[in-house]
Amino acid sequence: MRVNNKGLWAVGALTVTASLALTGCTAASDTADNGAGTGEALTVWVDADRAAVLKDAAADFTAETGVEVKLVQKEFGDIRDQFIAQVPTGKGPDVVIGAHDWLGTFVTNGVVAPVELGDKADAFQDVGITAMSYEGQVYGVPYSIENIALVRNTALAPSTPATFDEMVTMGKAAGTEYPFLVGLDPEAADPYHLYPFQTSFGAPVFGTAADGSYDADALEIGNAGGDKFAAWLAAQGAAGVLNTNITGDLAKEKFIAGESPFYLTGPWNVPAAVEAGIDVAIDPIPSAGGETAQPFVGVQGFFVSSKSENALAANEFIVNYMGSEEVQTALFEVGGRAPALTASFEAASADPIVAGFGAVGENAVPMPSIPAMGAVWEFWGVTEAAIINGGDATSLWQKMSGDIETAIAG
Amino acid sequence: MTTTPETDPGPIRQSARAKRATRIADAAAGGWKIVAIKILGLGVVDAIAIYALFVLVRSESWLVAGLVVAVTLLVNWIYFSRGKLPAKYLAPGLIFLAIFQIFVLLYSGYIAFTNYGTGHNSTKADAVNSLLLSSQNRVADSPNYRLTVLEQLGEISFLVTEPDGSVSIGGEERPLKEVNNAQLEGDVAVGLAGYTSLGFQDILGRQSAIAAISVPLTDDPNDGMLRTPDGSSAFLYTSSLDYDEAAGTMRDKNSGITYSDIGTGAFTSDNGQELLPGWKIEVGLDNFVRAFTEESIRGPLISVTVWTFAFAFLSVFTTFALGLFLAIVFNDKRMKSRKYYRIIMILPYAFPGFLSALVWAGMMNQEFGFINTVLLGGAEVPWLTNEWLAKGSVLFVNLWLGFPYMFLVTTGALQAIPEELTEAATVDGAKPWAIFRFVKLPLLLVSVAPLLISSFAFNFNNFNLIYMLTNGGPRDVSAGVNVGATDILISMVYKVAFVGANRDYGLASAFAIIIFILVAGIAIISFRRTKSLEELN
Fold first, then answer.
1. Is the dihedral of CA A137, B273, A85, B496 positive or negative?
2. Residue A108: which of B28, B118, B235 has the nearest Cβ?
3. What are the E-state strand segments in A320-370?
């Protein structure tokens, strides 16, 4: 009797779960539909770091407008692909948090709607608005701006170096094991961290169109400056200043251990150094090729789904709430990323580290968000790694430029 | 199901065995408790199904709704009818199988025949919609018009206060018309006699309708349209694209180029320029044809296929050889403390594979890795960045990960071979090697061969190891394609589908089908051949 009872229980349980799963496929869409369909609640995808701050902002928004905001936590890296996959089915969120360099893919897939900032656009830092624009159209509300800079251990190097060579000289004079640290990957180097040196030779990736946006047809990476940069990479590789075996983790570890006075990195690695008791200063990135070293800047912000049926509420939420000084400041306090709203940024600049990165960011350029950039990433890093490790600089660099051109055209 | 027997056995005498059988049958049929549980369970299932039906009908998903009805009826029929015992046990499993296996398989198979990927991930209607949406540009330096949304007999109008203070009203296809009897609040018009002003809540309730309205500024559409992003202010937009619904063409007003639908899943101009986003279409065998004809795909496909076979075969061979060797050694009674050695042997098997691969990647760092700095005294061997060393490293790490499994399997199989056979062979004067070669190994292979085949299939698709250890690298930078020396087919599929800005899910699914055919073919042939081994018994 007991045995039979159990068996039937199990069968019953299985049926229930099976039916649940079956209906779950459809029921899941239903709940999302409620979010996007009936104008009752706004569904927002957000990563765990930002969820806490957004919770308060969302509560304020609900109190004022009566629109409920449903925050769905996602892994930041997963948001892009899931958003692209779900919006066409009509079941995606109304608003997502994201990085500006996803924008090209978003627009190509038709999953984001333009955002009208109106007169509010002036309240944001220019680079934030430029980054959130695609073909002259603004698609998102920026909330944070991030770029790399030279982090200096003031105990080992008392003054700011003007050029790369001067920095290496100072680094060697400090008597530490490494004159300069930057995290590179053995396979793919790191074009993002090496980009400021590349621009200092006058070799940006793309040329710009009249309106300041990147022009995929004007590939600049293989110009004369690019060749000089490639030769410089080979020289630094041979001299051991650039070393592809020092990965990001190793570079961080060695800087914290005081084994180098200079470390090229972003604000995300600074807290660890400060905690380790290192007195750091944030310096401009020294020029290697004579021109200004311009790092990439990454902007994060909020996008609205092109299929959102809550378009008005979504716009109201991201423009008037997420774009407010209070929320931008709160987001800065939790994440440590410099705010995109000028007023919030000025308040945050009381911290010398934020101000230091911000000053370097003034020279920075937004990372291209055009889909053609995908073809560039595919060849860029591996070629840099090959050159640093002793490959023939000019021919590899030109080969890469040609490959990129073919890939963009193809 | 009822608990009372259908026919009363009455005074007919039953044997003790028949009585016991009846008792068991009664118990299996269950008492009222079981009936209650059954009704409760099915009630829950039906309630969920009915709820889902409401939702599905409202969203007009007729196909899924039909399936839900069919499955629910079937489930009720199975569990409320008498008998059907096998179906009662099988139904949940079959439903799971259909949802999680068959549907997924068929769907990914279907993707292989479409152009699904970046720029082609939705329907044509969606593509038209988002092209029109993104082609609307705010007129440069156009002012911010203060807006009140009005309603009259269900029709929505915009009451706008122009920057110069004048007040106008207009609606969809009704150009702005100046009015002078508006109620003002400060200098902004907030109402008009005969109309109802909508509050923010009302606007939210009808926001998709309001967001879709564009009010022409004048009779000339080229002067632009007023649209509102938030219900309280309006901006002037002009659209650079014009959709001709009858002809199905898109016209760019600025350049005058007409883009038409020529069946490639995107609006295309005469000179071949495409407007993105496009939409998903079925492309037949195009993806398969591309896989075999397009030079940039075919070249790497061949070399990757060869390496995939080599990798899978060598992995199985080396792990089996080492596992078998150790199994024989530890099977020897002269070996002391075998138990402890065996525990140590199993350790690699106990670590999660992708974690070990990651740790090995660190240990094989050319300059700072444990192997070079400690074991080789500072020699800078490029374990993971030289093409052939990387291939060797992949095989070596897979050997380290895989031999304990083979060791376990062969230990069991060896112990199952009767001692008498060895003794008989010894009596016949065979040397140990001959005994192993002619007696033990063939018997061992009978039981182990199917495992070797499945192990081959597993390694054929061993994505974890490749991704975590080398990520397919090192790349040959002069090759001009994003495929490295240690990429196997599955990691190449991953790169096609998910790496870079241009994803091509259609092509990746086509590759997946090709891989499936390869693995299935090998498995069928190998299983056929292992049958001949069984004849040894």
1. negative
2. B118
3. 338-339, 365-366
Question: Is the CB of A150 inside 8 Å of chain B's CB atoms?
Answer: no
What are A343's two structure tokens?
Answer: 């007023």
Instruction: Taking the CA atoms of B203, B204, B207 and B211 in sequence, report the sign of the dihedral they define.
Output: positive
Residue B177 confidence (pLDDT) above 70: yes
Cβ atoms of B215 and B176 within 8 Å: the answer is yes
Torsion sign, CA atoms B382, B384, B388, B391: positive
The verdict on a CB contact (< 8 Å) between A316 and B480 is no
Q: How far is CA A292 from CA A157, A161, B59, in A?
A: 22, 14, 57
Give chain B positions within 8 Å (CB) of A400. Answer: 477
Whole-angstrom distance, CA of residue B89 vs CA of residue B85: 7
In sequence order, what are the beta bridge partners of A44?
A: A71, A95
B97 SS3 class: helix
Has residue A393 got a pLDDT over 70? yes
Picking from A19, A141, A302, A307 by the largest number of B CB atoms within 10 A of its own CB, the best residue to mutate is A19
Torsion region of B224: left, alpha or beta (phi above 0 gives left; psi -120 to 50 gives alpha): left
Q: Sign of the C-alpha dihedral, residues B415, B416, B417, B419? A: positive
Compute the nearest-CA separation of B437 from chain A (Å). Answer: 45
d(CA A118, nearest CA chain B) in Å: 7
Tell me if B449 sits within 8 A of B316, measured CB to CB.
no
CB-based contact A379 B41, cutoff 8 Å: no
CB count in 10 Å sphere of residue B412: 12
* Collapsed DSSP state (helix, strand, coil) of residue B149: strand
Q: Do B51 and A23 lie within an 8 Å CB cutoff?
A: yes
Look at A375 and B500 and tell me if their CB atoms are within 8 Å: yes
Give the helix/strand (H/E) hosting A82: helix A76-86
Do residues B89 and A10 make contact, with C-beta atoms less than 8 angstroms apart?
no
What gap in Å lies between CA A283 and CA A277, rounded to an integer?
A: 19
Q: Using CB atoms and an 8 Å cut-off, which of residues 396-455 of chain B contact chain A?
A: none
Give Cβ neighbours of residue B310 (< 8 Å, ≥ 6 apart).
Answer: none
User: Which residue type, as a one-letter code, is found at position A262?
Assistant: F
- Counting one residue from chain A and one from chain B, the pairs whose CB atoms sit within 8 A come to 228
* Residue A42, both tokens: 């706004």
Q: Which residue is closest to A368 within chain B, CA to CA?
A: B501
Pick from B62, B120, B475 the residue to mutate for testing the A interface (most A CBs within 10 Å): B475
Is-contact B215 B170, C-beta < 8 A? yes
Give the pLDDT confidence score for residue A76 in this predicted structure. Answer: 86
Judged by DSSP in three states, B201 sits in helix
Q: Does A31 touch chain B (CB under 8 A)?
A: no
Q: What is the mean pLDDT of residues A361-365?
A: 87
Is this prediction's pTM over 0.80?
no
Look at B477 and A383 and tell me if their CB atoms are within 8 Å: yes
pLDDT, residue B13, reads: 57
Sequence-ordered strand ranges (E) for A284-333: 296-305
A201: which residues sit within 8 A by CB, 6+ positions away? A225, A226, A228, A229, A232, A288, A289, A290, A291
Of the candidates B226, B249, B221, B251, the residue with the CA atom closest to the CA atom of residue B237? B226
Torsion of CA B363, B368, B370, B373, to 10 degrees: 150
CB contact under 8 A, B137 and A136: yes
Half-sphere exposure of A337 (CA within 13 A, CB side): 21
Q: Which chain B residue's Cα is nearest to A377?
A: B500
- ipTM (interface pTM): 0.70
Contact A311 B207 (CB under 8 A): yes
- State yes or no: pLDDT of A10 exceeds 70: no
- Count of other CB atoms within 10 angstroms of residue B102: 11
Q: In sequence order, what are the residues at sequence separation of 6 or more whose Cβ sits closer than 8 angstroms to the Cβ of residue B87?
A: B78
Nearest by Cα to B435 from B422, B449, B451, B420: B422
